[in-house]
Amino acid sequence: MRILLTSSNTASHPYPVFPLGCAVVAKALKAAGHEVEIFDVMAETGGDPSLENIGKALEMLAERLRAFSPGMVGISIRNIDNVNILEEETFLDIPKRMVEVAWSVLPRVPVVLGGSGFSIMPETMLERLGADYGVAGEGEHAVVELAAEIAAGKRPPKGVRKSPPLGGDEGDGWRIVGAEYPGDLLGFYTSKGSVAPVQTKRGCPNHCVYCSYPFLEGRAIRCRPPSEVVDEMRFLREERGADFVFFTDSVFNDAEGTYWRVVEEMERKSPEVPWTAFFQPSKEITPDIVERLSAAGLHSVELGVDAAADKSLKEMGKGFSFDLAKRCNDIFTDAGIAVANYFMMGGPGETRETIEEGINNIASLERAVSFVFLGVRILPGTPLLKLAIEQGVVTPDTDFTSPVYYFSPELDRKWLEQRLDETLARMKRCVYPPNSMDAGIALLRRMGYRGNLWEMMLPGNNKAPVTDGNTKPEMRNPKY
Fold first, then answer.
1. In degrees rounded to 5, what are phi and psi of residue 134?
2. pTM confidence score
3. Alpha helices, DSSP H only, in 32-172?
4. How does pLDDT run across 35-47, given as a tens digit for each residue?
5. Domains of the chain (ranges, CATH numbers)
C-alpha cells in the first residue's frame, strides 16, 4: 500500500528540526513492505513558515496527494506550542488544515495522527483535529498494524491506539529501529543550520515534575544496539554529508550507564563525526570521564539543570544540588567542551529568595551559556499538573492544547518579569528572553554556520560551529 507520511512541524527557532519520529515510522513501514513517501511542511516552506509560504506548502500537499494517491495518510505533530510565554506561538492549526486538505483530495482516505505532541493528549487532539485515527506513544508497531488492516480492506473503528513501549535490543517484541534519512530532506535541514539527529535509547527513570518523557516513553531504559547507532552515524557522515550529530535521548548519561555501550562502540569503530547530547549533572562526571568522552567525539553538552537554587531543584524533582551542576559545568569547560544550561524561573517552591539565589548562581556560570525561560509549561500526565490542580492554578477540565504555565503562588509574576529583565536580560552569556538570539542566529545561518551557535557566546571559544566551507574555514572538534 502507498502511504504518505507528513510532518506538520513549523517551529523554526533556534533552527528547523529534522522530523525524526516521522522518519522512524517511515522506515518501519517500508520494512513491512509498504511504499512510503514523506512530505515535510517545513521543507516545503523553504525554512520560512510565513502564512503565505504555509499556504503554498498546503497546495503542494494537495498536488502530492493527487500524484501519489496514497491508501493512508499520516500526520506527525511534534510541537503543540513554542513553550515561550513571552512570545507565544501555537502549532495546531496546520495539522488541522492538513486533515482538511487530505480529505478534499481523497475523501475516503484514512488519516492517522501521531508524534510526541499528539501523544501528550491524544484523545483531545484527535477530537480537535478531526482525523480518523491516532497513535499515541511509540508508533512503529501500532502504525504498521493499522496499515496492515487498512491494506487488507478493513476500516477499524475510529479512535486512538496506544502503543506499549517497544523492546530494546535485548527486549521482547519489536526492537527500536533507526530512521529513514532521505538525502534531499536531511540536506535541507543541514543547509538551514540543523544537525543530524540520532536516538540511542528510549525511556527516562527520572522524576522531574514537569517532564512528559516518562509519560511518552516509559521509565524503563530500552537501548538500540550500539552497533546500529554507530553505523548510522557513519552512514550520515559518509552517505549524507552530515558533519555533526545530536543524540536526542532524554538524557544521554543515564544513571544505569547504558550510554557507555555506545561510547565503547564509537571508540571501536571511530565514526569520526563530532556529537552533542543532553546530559544531567552527576557525580559520575569526572575529568577522566570527560576526557574519554571528548576523545570519542563529544563536542558540546546541553545540561538540563532546569532550576537555579537548591530548594527549587528539589521541588522540581531533581536529584542534585546546584553546586554539583556547577562542578560538572567546570569539568566540561576545563576540558574544552562547550556547555549550555537550561533554567525555568518561577516553578514549584520558588520564592523571591530562591529567585535572587538563582540569579547569582546563573551569574556564576561564567564559562557556559544559560538559556532562561519564564514559568513552567503544564502538560497532562505530569506531577506538575496534579500540583497545579491542588493549588487551584488549573482545573481538571483546563484545555492544555493552548499553553498554560505554572508560577509559584509565592511569587508575583510582574515582579519576577521585572527582576529578570533587570538582571538576566543584561547578563553576558545568558539568553533571556529565550528568543532574544533569534535575529542573530538567523543571520549566522544565512552566512553558512551550522551546529550550536550559542557556542559563539563563550569566551575563548576554540570549537566554533561548523560552516559550509564556502567562504569560511571549517572548524570542528580538533580530533576531526
1. -140, 145
2. 0.90
3. 41-44, 51-68, 93-105, 116-120, 122-129, 139-151
4. 999 999 999 999 8
5. 2-163 (3.40.50.280), 183-457 (3.80.30.20)
